[in-house]
Amino acid sequence: MWSNNAMGLWSKVKGSGTIFKNPNSIGQAIAKNLPSSDIIESASVAGPGFVNITLSNRWVAQRIQDMLVNGIKTWAPVLPVNRTVVDFSSPNIAKEMHVGHLRSTIIGDTLARMFEFSNVVVLRRNHVGDWGTQFGMLIEYLFEKFPNWQEIGCQAIGDLQIFYKASKHRFDSDPDFKARAQQGVVRLQGGEDKYREAWKKICDISRSEFDLVYKRLNVVLEEKGESFYNPYIPQVLEELSNKGLIKESEGARVIFIQGHQIPLIVVKSDGGFNYASTDLTALWYRLNVEQAEWIIYVTDVGQQQHFDMVFSAAKMAGWLPDPSEKKFPKTSHVGFGLVLGSDGKRFRTRSTEVVRLVELLDEAKSRSKSELLQRLTENGKIVDWTDEELEQTSEAVGYGAVKYADLKNNRLTNYTFSFEQMLSDKGNTAVYLQYAHARICSIIRKSNKNVEELKMSGAISLDHPDERVLGLYLIRFAEVVEEACTNLLPNVVCEYLYNLSEMFTKFYTNCQVVGSPEETSRLLLCQATAVVMRQCFNLLGITPVYKL
């Protein structure tokens, strides 16, 4: 490690009659006056004044050994917040979850996992669209087609996507039906029992479909949809109005935001509420009721302007400090790019319909299983695997491949969805990393040594250059997680995980483990690498496999 403080100090003392002639001489003084420490092996000065500090092998080894004894949680970074909201996934009731929701779900879950690992209380919020104008259309269509819908329940609606399209076609083609649907929204929002009951039924069917996706991805969310915030909207708008922020404009009520040509509409000209009124109210609730210090919204980059305006309105209201003050509470919009098909266009099926996520994930598992079966059959190891192991490994590898293919990219960029690439065992893929982890587990198993005992009785040494490189990279784990949390970039963890596997490969190639005089130390380095890799997998929402 190195420090460039000498250059900064030189710019402050130059010309003040100092005894120092240049930055290098300041660097020499820093190096000479460093307090003695078991952390530092040596210090030297290079170039114009860079102070190079060599960390002690013994200290690095002890850090790793302490982690093995006390657990990876002792390497959790300390963040400046105690309580966050992560708003992610957020599909619309009665509509299909698409690949945009897949990105939001995967990225949001990983951010939540990183903060949770860092001992932050995370409120995982699913802000579902459950209170829009589409419900008048759906409910009236239900009443029209199935007058006895309460008796036949879910069978009346059947496939919700087909039901939605049929009601939308009716809405667009029949003015009388459209008028009834619009009145239906008013009756629903007015609290009529029959309409509330039908609304609840539609929401329940939709939720059960969402849950099929969440179960496969092993994602936990607490739903607080648009309808949850609806009762709070009038008091929040009253507060904003009392502060002089809401103005009348062309029959609507709006907030004018500096730097934006169009205002933020908070009450439509027909008196109805919209996304802005709901989002402002949700933000108010999260700040005042849930007491969140950092509120993170994970949506596509197309919603950046909307959230910029909502956050600006909140600052104007005095809910949030000025960003230049770098104080909490604060808000962040975590944008992400599109998922593209092999043709470079938005990812869809051949019929131009949006891809069903459940089918997409099931195909990833199916492809993973067929490749695993083929490989195990060819190498004669299929007899060592139970049906349950095959099933669990196919899920872990297949679903993990989809997640990692998304997370390894900078989230702001578009990425091309390709089963062939994501399920490849070459290069920076989840499959390659699962193999790397399984190989470490195999090395430890083949040693016939009890690693749990070794970590209590043995010691790590880092005498070989490749041992030292691996050890230094292992202890960087906490700062990597901190960087990923601070900048809300999961790809930082992916990059670290891939580099760690590459460094382990070099170490294993050049340092014999089993049967060497250094076997105990090197087995402990193997175990430490496996523990850190598993924690990275966990942060990314990927289930590690122990044999492949």
From TrEMBL:
GO BP, one annotated term: reproductive structure development
Source superkingdom: Eukaryota
Pfam families: Arg_tRNA_synt_N, DALR_1, tRNA-synt_1d
InterPro entries named in the record: aa-tRNA-synth_I_CS, Arg-tRNA-ligase, Arg-tRNA-synth_N, Arg-tRNA-synth_N_sf, ArgRS_core, DALR_anticod-bd, Rossmann-like_a/b/a_fold, tRNAsynth_Ia_anticodon-bd
Catalytic activity of the protein: tRNA(Arg) + L-arginine + ATP = L-arginyl-tRNA(Arg) + AMP + diphosphate
E.C. code: 6.1.1.19
DALR anticodon binding domain ranges (all copies): 433-548
Name used for this protein in its record: arginine--tRNA ligase
Provenance organism: Zea mays (Maize)
Gene this protein is translated from: LOC100281742
